[in-house]
Design a protein that fits this description.
There is one protein chain. With 186 residues, the chain is of the alpha/beta class. It has 3 helices and 13 strands. The strands form 3 sheets. A 5-stranded mixed sheet has the order 3-6-9-12-13. It has a 4-stranded parallel sheet with strand order 1-4-7-10, with no helix packed on it. The N and C termini lie far apart (93 Å).
Length: 186
Amino acid sequence: NIQDGCIIDSAKNHTKIGNGVTVGHLASIHSATVEDHCLIGMGALLQEGVVVKEESFIAAGANVPKNTIVESGELWVGNPARKLRDLTAEERQRLHFQSNEYVGVASSQKEVMLLGGNLPDSISKYLHLGHDVNDIEQYDSNQEQERGKEEQLQEQESTSEQHSLDDETTRNRFHNNEDNLKTAKS
């Protein structure tokens, strides 16, 4: 769960983020490793080379200095960040619960993007598809077929309208000729 406004980059090595991790709003992670089921608080900064081992909690606004290793199950706070204490077994379990809750919330809102969101039309048409390229190609093929059918219908309607106009023109000419003949006989 990577929340709004986060910066995650890597100048050296890769930034790695494990499963069940929550990264709070505006947090920054630079060339660091965060193992499974950790919580990185809002506005926290993990500098280059930091390793946060599993089930750890970095408090909001904490600034973890370069190459720091946060051991499993620790709570770190402050600027510069330091270990405040070990998390209790209940707090560590809560980290698992919290990440699962965020997944549940996200899953319940995935349809929001189908309403349009802020995506351009060129992308939004693919939102309901999986990540399989074949799905996308099939979708595009189906869309092309639908466009072809619509064009055929429009062409038929146009042709039908033209025939109607032609029929009406013919009727008008016939009536005009009939009127002209009546006038000529009189």
